[in-house]
């Protein structure tokens, strides 16, 4: 038993080629320390065969050759188009399908990856929508088959052709929808003809069919005839809720169709003025004025629209009018985006520095007017209300307590002496101090009754969210100045003014010699806005009349003039003046402050003596350019130069207000 071979492999001996015959008895040990071979097996000195894994045995198969490992080339696996197919290798021989999917090998599978040199990254500019539209725009054609069609039909058909095969962003679609609703091409008519209107029509048709069936019936025909010939006239029944709703929707539908027709006729009669209204008052009322993208894209979109009509000659009899409207659009393309830039840059550094010195004048004026209104209301209230203390009746005197020694701390008494305290507002509750025993936290927390964050508290200038401090006027003027002591606010004007011209500063023109302390700034000449509705009975537009507040009147009242009727010169920073150079004609609605020298008390003139009559009078001093100046305290709104109010009674429709 000890000499039996030890099997240490899982491979059965019968599967090995050239294995010895089981009937042959192998010698257990032939010689000590010598290996013997029998049938392709090797035995140790104890007669135990050696097994190698795998047992590569030299064998020859008839008709085949064994490829050496050095000459072996893998053919890979064929990609299975169907998972149910049998997997084969590159030679078509079936193979055992592996559970793990490997990437197919190749010639360069085991090669070391070579890192390529990094190329210079170039970022391409994003193509804007109008650049995309420009490609092939001249090839677009409108199809108006019959030029004898009414102008409304031709305009509607041309607008439909313009909208085809274009990429529309949400901003463009919003602007175009507002435009088509403004001119009357489209409207919200779908909401008027809804399910209720259709179902009502269907019910009316069913009732009519039922009535016809009744008339055809012989038995019920006489009854129907009797009803028709009855002389009794009954009052009409009130309409049901469904019928009333149908009548209401029908009336709204008819009104919408009438509005659209009127808008189309008005637009085709005068396209130039309608485009002025669209890009001014309509743009503001619909909320499009506060979107930078719509201020930029709106004029460009309608430029494509009108050029499409002019190029294809869809409205031949209106080409001159469309050219005038196109000129308004070109001006809007420049001015509308500029309104946002100016609103963000004004007040500039100079105006902010002046506000830091002389304060917010308009805020103080509004606060004073509010205090005056409160005082007038309180005075009127005191006059209209009769004090109850002055009225006494016999019943009150009868129930009066006449005991002077009565307990003064009982019900209705005043233990904290609150009634003797006076208050500015007699109708308000009289405040009194909370007793200490009512507030147990008073000792532990002495600040318990104080507001942790009172209104009007001075903000922390070091906070991250705080605005940067305004620049110093002294640093802007180039050195120490005495303006806060020698100058004071004279006038405050709140109005809309038109930009006439811009005079650049001497420093900006490379002139080193300064004739004034304000030579480093630019002058903006502003004129009153006179294109405003001032007739009685007319609806007041967006351009409000000017407000003038005299803060420190001059000593001589005759010298007071109305600055709202003449031009003024406002100082601005050089960076702002460069922007306003292209803003000629734009309207600035804001607060303009005039600062002048503090006037000294008038000196009495001495009577002329005979000795002084022969003397020459001293020459008058030249006018001081620094005696007075204007600055912009606050800017509310910037209007385009072609601002036009909408006509009275002109319904602008229900455009979308989305931004």
From TrEMBL:
Keywords from the UniProt entry: Coiled coil
Location of region: Disordered: 1-23, 379-399, 416-464, 600-625
A Pfam family it matches: Arb1
Record GO biological process: regulatory ncRNA-mediated gene silencing
UniProt KW ATP-binding keyword: no
InterPro entries noted in UniProt: Arb1
Protein's recorded name: Uncharacterized protein
């Amino acid at each position: 038993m000890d000499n039996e071979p030890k099997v240490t492999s899982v491979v059965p001996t019968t599967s090995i080629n050239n294995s010895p015959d089981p009937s042959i008895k192998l010698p257990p040990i032939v010689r000590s320390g010598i290996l013997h071979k029998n049938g392709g097996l090797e035995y140790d000195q104890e007669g135990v065969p050696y097994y190698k894994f795998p047992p590569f045995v030299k064998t020859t198969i008839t008709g085949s050759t064994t490829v050496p490992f050095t000459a072996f080339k893998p053919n890979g696996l064929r990609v299975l188009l169907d998972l149910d197919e049998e997997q084969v290798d590159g030679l078509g021989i079936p193979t055992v399908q592996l559970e793990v999917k490997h990437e197919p090998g190749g010639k360069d599978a085991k090669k070391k990856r070579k890192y390529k040199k990094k190329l210079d990254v170039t970022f391409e500019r994003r193509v804007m929508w109008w650049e995309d539209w420009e490609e092939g725009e001249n090839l677009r054609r409108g199809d108006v088959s019959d030029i004898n069609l009414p102008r409304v039909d031709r305009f509607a058909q041309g607008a439909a052709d313009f909208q085809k095969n274009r990429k529309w962003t949400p901003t463009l679609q919003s602007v175009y929808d507002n435009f088509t609703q403004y001119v009357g091409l489209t409207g919200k008519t779908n909401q008027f003809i809804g399910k209720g209107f259709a179902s009502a029509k269907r019910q009316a048709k069913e009732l009519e069919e039922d009535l016809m069936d009744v008339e055809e019936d012989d038995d019920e025909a006489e009854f129907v005839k009797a009803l028709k010939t009855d002389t009794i006239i009954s009052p009409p029944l009130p309409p049901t809720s469904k019928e009333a709703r149908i009548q209401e929707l029908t009336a709204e539908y008819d009104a919408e169709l009438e509005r659209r027709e009127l808008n189309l006729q008005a637009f085709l009669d005068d396209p130039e003025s309608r485009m002025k209204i669209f890009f001014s008052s309509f743009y503001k009322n619909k909320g499009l004025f506060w979107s930078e993208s719509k201020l930029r894209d709106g004029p460009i979109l309608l430029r494509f629209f009108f050029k499409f009509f002019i190029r294809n000659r869809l409205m031949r009899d209106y080409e001159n009018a469309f050219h005038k409207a196109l000129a308004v659009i070109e001006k809007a393309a420049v001015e509308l985006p500029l309104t946002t830039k100016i609103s963000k840059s004004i007040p500039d550094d100079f105006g902010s520095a002046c506000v830091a010195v002389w304060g917010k004048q308009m805020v103080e004026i509004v606060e004073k007017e509010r205090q005056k209104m409160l005082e007038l209301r309180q005075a009127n209230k005191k006059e209209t209300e009769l004090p109850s203390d002055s009225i006494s009746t016999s019943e009150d005197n009868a129930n009066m307590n006449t005991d002077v020694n009565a307990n003064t701390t009982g019900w209705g008494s005043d233990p904290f002496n609150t009634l003797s305290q006076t208050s500015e507002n007699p109708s308000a509750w009289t405040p009194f101090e909370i007793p200490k025993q009512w507030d147990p936290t008073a000792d532990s927390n002495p600040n318990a009754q104080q507001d942790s964050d009172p209104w009007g508290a001075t903000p922390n200038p070091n906070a991250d969210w705080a605005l940067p401090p305004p620049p110093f006027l002294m640093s802007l003027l180039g050195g120490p100045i005495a303006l806060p002591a020698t100058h004071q606010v004279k006038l405050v004007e709140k109005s809309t003014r038109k930009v006439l011209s811009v005079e650049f500063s001497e420093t900006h023109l490379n002139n080193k010699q300064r004739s004034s302390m304000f030579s480093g700034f630019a002058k903006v000449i502003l004129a009153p806005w006179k294109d405003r509705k001032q007739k009685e009975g007319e609806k007041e537009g967006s351009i409000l009349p000017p407000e003038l507040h005299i803060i420190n009147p001059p000593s001589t009242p005759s010298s007071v003039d109305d600055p709202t009727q003449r031009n003024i010169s406002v100082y601005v920073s050089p960076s702002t003046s460069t922007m306003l150079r292209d803003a000629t004609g734009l309207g600035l609605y804001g607060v303009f402050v005039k600062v002048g020298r503090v006037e000294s008390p008038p000196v009495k003139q001495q009577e002329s003596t005979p000795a002084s009559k022969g003397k020459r009078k001293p020459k008058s001093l030249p006018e001081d350019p620094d005696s007075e100046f204007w600055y912009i305290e606050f800017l509310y709104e910037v209007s385009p130069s072609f601002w036009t109010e909408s006509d009275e009674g002109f319904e602008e429709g229900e455009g979308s207000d989305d931004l």
